[in-house]
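Recap from last week: sequence in, structure out.
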Amino acid sequence: MSTKTDFTPSGIKYEGPYENDRNAENAELYKAIIREAYGVTDVICGHHLVYQVEDKRADGFTYTFVEEVPSADTLIFDTDVAQKLWGDKWKSILSILAVTPIAERDALLKDFYYGRGK
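Predicted structure tokens:
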């Protein structure tokens, strides 16, 4: 299975394997974005993107919660995340990403994310 296509030769859409491969191919990028946007260190990329959040409560205990981002596009098009990453430019960047085919979107996202300091 590859992310080169998200359909079988007979036209049936892949749901699971395609997303797994996409997440694996772009794991470092997605992990970097999640770490920055959510302020976490532990991120796992599988079929979904998963991270842990620690929350110190008034009772004095620190609780660990597992949070899940269901897909790469859910992460990419989260307006709160986009605002954290790109500030005032977030709307134009999301507009460009929205009209870019998935096959090209992740490479463009990588350029936008790592090119912020340039």
